[in-house]
Amino acid sequence: MRRSSNRKSSSASAAAGSGSTKAASKEFEKIDHLFNVYADKSSAIIDPEGIEQLCSSLEVDYTDVRILMLAWKMKAQKQGFFTLEEWRTGLKALRADSMSKLKKALPELVKEVSRPTDFLDFYSYAFRYCLTEDKQKCIDIESACQLLSLVLGTQFGPQVEKFTEYLKSQSEYKVMNMDQWMGFYRFCNEIPFPSLENYDSDLAWPLILDNFVEWFRENQN
Amino acid sequence: MNAQSQSQSQSQRRKNFKIEAFKHKVELDPKYAERTWKVLEHAIHEIYNNNASRLSFEELYRSAYNMVLHKYGDKLYSGLVATMTAHLNKIAKSVESAQGGLFLEKLNHKWADHNKALQMIRDILMYMDRSYVPTSHKTPVHELGLNLWRDHIIHSPNIQARLQDTLLDLVQRERTGDVINRGLMRNITKMLMDLGSSVYQDDFEKPFLDVSASFYSGESQQFIECCDCGSYLKKAERRLNEEIERVSHYLDAKTEVKITSAVEREMIANHMQRLVHMDNSGLVNMLIDDKYDDLSRMYSLFKRVPDGLSTIRDVMTSYLRERGRVLVTDTERLKDPVEFVQCLLNEKDKHDKIISTAFNNDKTFQNALNSSFEYFINLNNRSPESISLYLDDKLRKGLKGASEEEVEVVLDKVMMLFRYLQEKDVFEKYYKQHLAKRLLSGKTVSDDAERSMIVKLKTECGYQFTSKLEGMFTDMKTSEDTMLDFYAKQSAELGDGPTLAVQILTTGSWPTQPTAACNLPPEILTVCEKFRTYYLGTHSGRRLTWQTNMGTADIKATFGKGHKHELNVSTYQMCVLMLFNSADGLTYREIEQATEIPALDLKRCLQSLACVKGKNVLRKEPMSKDISEEDVFYFNDKFTSKFVKVKIGTVVAQKESEPEKQEMRQRVEEDRKPQIEAAIVRIMKSRRVLDHNSIVAEVTKQLQSRFLPNPVVIKKRIESLIEREFLERDKADRKLYRYLA
Which residues are in the Cullin family profile domain (chain B) (predicted)? Predict the structure, then answer.
């Protein structure tokens, strides 16, 4: 009984397999086609040049945060490059297989990202995306400031403005690590600004934020 | 006595000689009852009139007995009450009429009489007391007598107030110096107590306490305006003792605690602050002037009142802290660290003596002293260095000729100061440096004293603290043995060369000094190389590096007119001087080139050879105080000294210069980082998850025997450990840290 059912199921799965590849290739056909428009012919990967072209097609700026969001949706590993797998992942999730559909999907994407749980994931992704070297764990302060403005600028404008001002004015920290990056987001969410009334440096806030708060309070006077 | 009343029954039962209980009442004729009562009434009168001797106890007892037996108890009792009352009223009038001082005497006298009477009456009426009184719930005779006395005499309107006034007046007179009849007073107060403690309290004790309180309130106000603290306390003590004595002589014992607390409240508690802070005579002045008696008195008096001792303690603590703060921030005094530490020790001794002599060795005061010292010693971050310098001075020369006990006493006292230090690791670094210099220059007063100090440090801080110090001692001994062996084996080869004495220091045990090699004179170099060969021959796998900045040399020098002197110099100085064997004059640059001694050291070296009066074996042109790179140096032919042996170079432990101090500080901070991290990891490994404050508290506790970690530094270390993935922030509660295995 089992054997026969096995055979049946295996044959069934075989049929499904072949069917799915057909369906798959059909499914990704348009997506792949769109990929090839921007991909480099020799490496079969979209490189920074290709991304620039993609941006102009999408009518967004190269430095726009929506590209970052797109990279996030694609789960892209390397900054400035999209592989075919990543492209497929992203566009499938966005249910876009043409440039017009992709364009239309962008506002939806923005909305999706701003949901708190998704945003947290996006926020930490943004940091990791900037770690270009293999064992790199930190990004330099200049880049961190830019990234903060890009990613949190709309949501927590005043905090970002002050924090980046502080970062640029001090010389103790030359880089920022993931812990400090995540700490700042938590700071924006939990501590009222600009009163900072319930900030307690005896709790486990990263030291860089303790120093920021001290600097901020001093400069207010 | 029973015989007569039972005669009737007995006559009826003569046949059966049995003693049986009564079976029928024996009726007493009421007239007989009245007659019986009259007998008793008369007796009571006689008793009160002191005519009791003519009465027959037996007859009276029998009469009373009969009355009770025949159910005339009521009559007997009420008759008793009436009779006694009548007598007491008469007595009251008699007492009232007494004039002045005789009032109390009369009262006392009458009271004694009354008691005697009462005793007799009670004896007579004993049967009533035992049978009628309980069953009819009446007051027993004795108590009745007392109550009646109380109601009709003591509480009689013409007596009550007068009695109270008289008693209080006598007390007042005694307080102002008169002598009063204490025996009489005692009797009266005892009388009141006998009448019931509430009588004593209401009629005497409460008013007594009130009057006393206002008396002492007034007196204390008066004293405090005109007396200094010491005199005031003497007066208060005297008054307190007086009251205690008063109670023991003529008041009830239970009054003692009440009157003493009234005196304590009025004379001490209410004026505590003012006394303690009194200008020129308060607590602080007493401390400064070692007024043991006054302090002792203050302690025992203030002990009696709530917050008394804590008041003294708090004022003492803030005084000590301030005094200490002034001491440790006095820049003039700090110029001489040995003096500075001696000062601290003297302060400690002084206050120890005060606490043991005047404050009964009270542990809470000892603690206050310790915490004050701990507070101000750490206000100055040069304290660890100063204490090490003090020890250095003592171990070099200060303890010369001292007995073993004297040495122990001094070292123990210094250990007390050491315990107060928060930065014990800084002390360790300095102590190591200073010890190294002492050992290498051979300038230690006693090996035993040195070792004793190490043992004390080990006991206090553990093996880790002292293992390197002990290593230094070992090296010294080994070096001695090595030198003996070297000369034994190599004497033939060495011939007439200079005598070498090498101290081989194991790197790691000794404080690291940056080695700047210099060019040794050829004859020195030769013998040094011979030693190196010898040593490496017996100890393969080791590397020797000459520490030219730490050695000394004895040189024989011949000056003009053939004057010979033996110069004791540092190695650098020797290198410079030897150059003048082949030249009379050399420029700075020539010396620098030939010796390759680093500039700062060379300048110091030349200064000590050319610019110090009495030691100027070199002459400098120009004759300025400082060494410049254009100077020229000449062998000073004209050098003279009354000593044959002249000591020019000493490697004495000096107070560090600013840049050296900064460098030391940095090294200390660097060394602390791994210690903090190790503590964090240890704690997190055992606790797994912990919040920030707890980690800071635990780390501080673990490291407190070495130094006080800065919470900011701890946080930085934690973050570094997070980055290196030893720890992480807990995902659920980001106020917690989690150990990553």
Answer: 382-610
